[in-house]
Specification:
With 126 residues, the protein is an alpha+beta fold. It has a single domain (8-109), classed as RNA polymerase II/Efflux pump adaptor protein, barrel-sandwich hybrid domain (OB fold (Dihydrolipoamide Acetyltransferase, E2P), Beta Barrel). 19% of the residues lie in helices and 35% in strands. It has a 6-stranded antiparallel beta sheet with strand order 1-2-3-9-8-5. A 3-stranded antiparallel beta sheet has the order 4-6-7, with no helix packed on it. The protein is globular, with a radius of gyration of 13 Å. The two termini are 14 Å apart.
């Protein structure tokens, strides 16, 4: 199971990567494995401000539909348009080309409640 050390994680299996005052958000390798083949991603929240824990979109896999939750509060400033034609990028490269949204962070202090790689690894192995 791939769990990069340079990311922070939620208990709901989203990851966040900070770059300056912005952050990229995606789903973890564990999440994509549990979902199976991802066939559709719906994110219609670009330009919206959302609170931590709010739904920013949905992922449809062969066997289920799952909500995507904001790891921290912020404005959705970009959606990964490549996922429209290739939602399987989330299966093939969940920590790279399969990112979901880019957000402008409200409060970096909210990152303190997220999990580091070791803690997330313990969560999914228990």
């Amino acid at each position: 199971m791939n769990i990069p050390d340079n990311l922070m994680y939620t208990k709901d299996h989203e990851w966040i990567k900070i770059e300056g005052g912005d952050a990229f958000v995606g789903i973890t390798d564990y999440a994509q494995g549990e979902l199976g083949d991802i066939v559709f991603v719906e994110i219609e929240t670009e330009g919206e401000h959302l609170d931590q824990g709010q739904v920013f979109g949905t992922i449809e896999a062969v066997k289920t539909v799952s909500d995507l939750l904001m790891p921290v509060a912020g404005e959705v400033i970009e959606v990964n348009s490549a996922l429209e034609d290739s939602p399987d990028l989330m299966n093939n490269d969940p920590f790279g080309k399969g990112w979901l949204i880019k957000i402008k962070l409200d409060d970096p202090a909210q990152l303190e409640v997220l999990l580091d790689a070791n803690t997330y690894g313990e969560l999914i192995s228990s």
